[in-house]
Write a structure and sequence with these properties.
This protein has a 5-stranded parallel β-sheet with strand order 3-2-1-4-5, sandwiched between helices. Helices cover 51% and strands 22% of the residues.
Length: 144
């Protein structure tokens, strides 16, 4: 590897491919002594439009993500990564993972799975990944 990465973003959503991406990102971060940004996005499009249901589903989703994020942070610490940042946002995963967070945090590598876990994402296989590969300001590693 000729490039030395300093800030690595890994997108996680609970899918098998994001778990593989997380493992790969930890290995790269450890090898480069890099900071690891573990990012999970609550996709508003996949939530219902009803105000009551939205708030209930959103709260449940956020709680589940926060618990999963704590587990990921502990896994990364046990793996030997010293600099770990957890990011949980609500919005469009394509823009947040592919443009906004990388620019804000000076990310130089994004690691992500080829597809996500949601039914809508399965119908749009690769659309988020394709968008990020095309628009990201840095290298993108897609894990299958």
């Amino acid at each position: 590897m000729t490039i030395s990465y300093q800030n690595i973003l890994v997108a996680v959503d609970g899918s098998k491919q994001s778990e593989k991406a997380f493992s790969e990102a930890m290995a790269i971060a450890k090898q480069n002594l890099a900071s690891l940004y573990i990012v999970s996005i609550i996709n508003e499009v996949e939530l219902t439009h009803s105000a009551y249901a939205f708030s209930k589903i959103y709260a449940e989703e956020k709680e589940a993500i926060e618990l999963e994020m704590l587990k990921k942070i502990n896994d990364a610490k046990e793996y030997g990564i010293d600099s770990i940042h957890a990011v949980v946002e609500t919005g469009d995963p394509r823009e947040l993972i592919g443009v906004d967070i990388p620019n804000k945090e000076q990310i130089d590598l994004i690691v992500m799975g080829a597809t996500g876990k949601g039914a809508i994402q399965q119908a749009l296989v690769g659309s988020t990944t394709s968008y990020i590969v095309t628009h990201a300001p840095c290298n993108v590693l897609v894990v299958k």
